[in-house]
Amino acid sequence: MRRERMRAALQRHLPIFGHVRGYDTHTFLCDLIAGVTVGLTVMPQALAYATLAGVEPQFGLYSAFAGCFVYVVFGSCKDITIGPTALMSLMTYQQVVNRNSDYAILLCFISGIMQLLMAVLNLGLLVDFISIPVTVGFTSATSMIIISSQLKYILGLKYKSNGFFDTLYQAYANIDKSRYADFQMALVCIVLLLGLRKIKDIKLKRKPLEKTIWVISTSRNALVVVCSSLLAYYYETTTGAVPFLLTGKVKPGMPNFGPPPFSTTYNNRTVELSEMLADLGGSVVMVPIIAVLGNVAIAKAFANNKSVDATQELIALSFCNVIGSFFSSIPITGSFSRSAVNHASGVKTTVGGIFTGILVLLALSFVTPAFRYIPKASLGAVIICAVIFMIEYEVVRPMWKSNRKDLIPMSVTFILCLSIGVELGIVIGVFINIILLLYPSARPQVTVEKLTTPNGVECLLITPSNSLYFPAVEFIKSYVDNAGLNSVHLPVVIDCRFILAADFTAARGVSAMIRDFAGRKQPLYFLNPSEKVKNVFKGADIAFNSLKSVQELEDFIVDSEESALLKQLNSTYREFEQV
Known about the structure:
This protein has helices at 2-13, 16-19, 25-53, 57-74, 86-96, 101-120, 132-149, 151-154, 164-173, 180-199, 207-218, 220-239, 273-280, 283-301, 310-325, 336-344, 352-366, 368-371, 376-387, 396-402, 407-419, 422-442, 470-486, 504-519, 531-539, 550-578, and strands at 82-83, 263-266, 269-272, 333-334, 446-452, 458-464, 492-495, 524-527, 546-547. It is of the alpha/beta class and 579 residues long. Strands 5-6-7-8-9 form a 5-stranded mixed beta sheet. It has a two-stranded antiparallel ribbon with strand order 1-4. Strand 6, helix 23 and strand 7 form a beta-alpha-beta unit. The radius of gyration is 33 Å and the shape is elongated. It starts with a helix and ends with a helix.
């Protein structure tokens, strides 16, 4: 039994042992095809995302291979591919702008450490506080920010900007300097990418032809980038001049292996670790959380109704970032688009990531000289076509029909992410969402009705719709007091069927309410409170009338009224005797 438990624990934390059990030739071929397909997809995206992150293109390739190898060992979902993404690149850019690439590498390392700490402390539940409306507002806003950031490459412009609205203004102010060739190149690339994306849905009777079309559609990013690069190469060899802005020289070879930079030099001065962390600010918390949110969401999407071990995904992602930082990686996470390609390619295990990583390493070793011919306009088109479908406008209508309050955190997150930054935007969005979540606890709905029992006993029935916690106690107390004063001739009954829990503050408030009712000699009863609520009241030394059913309530009220009547008659008799 001990051996079995150790084996189960080993497979849980090192899923590779479960993946390779029974590994055969068929599984190997499926993983090989899927890994190579994903590799052809990730290379142009990696170059584009490095540009988006504000670092040199080779950093995108550095970020594309380490995570592939690490996730093979620690990852639990066969479909996920780890590497640079548009969202992580955007959040990295906000920390790298006007600084250097050392900040991006350090942010990758810190993100991994934070994710590992979250896994050890079992803090994956923090992701649960980011609701779908907040996520929709966040992803839609970041998609628009990413699209706006590519305007200068599509138009062939050169300018610096800070923030979404400033980017739009700079593009408008410099539009007279646009280069027609870049715009034409970007427009053609976007049309081709969207068209090739759509043709995979065509159903044909001839399966080999349908499979060929699917392969072409899946490899569209690589095809478009290769064709545009060949065109740039043709112009240079025939005319000696290229009409497009090019990526430029990409540093060949493997990155230097070593620890991430804990100090850096820029603006002719040395910046120590403490100052670098201060410059990174809240991103050291938000970047790892957003990375985990995306990774777990992808794992759930491809889990086929199986449970997802969020803690194990945290561990895998943390090691991907920590180890990746030793290879000069920027922050990475799971890519939904590449994971979808991986799944559609028929991947069987996470071993497919090995072939993706090998392909990227081969590109770094032998193909980097050709990367300098890639037009920036084509990379901009790749990014735009990757993120444009992340603008989730279609959820607004069902959200309006189901629960309109959800539009508040979504709209606030969307607007603030565009105006003040994605980190603050999502934090404020989550805060507002929590307030809306807690509001029913502070102001629960309370219904008041006159109840007549089967035997004709009348009482006032008050039903709170939520548990009794300290934010709501004064509200419910005043509500019950006012209802009792308006019907002072009737006994008041609090229906406790929805009150599943209470706290000490609420118990003290109930104690004060019981004294108020006793002071005006108006009966107050609690109908069917749970054992948990009764224990809280008893622990606060509250004497209260607890009844289990309407029949018991009726008998208790009748007995109380008869007792009160008898006491009144005895009192009257004693007064008569004295007279």
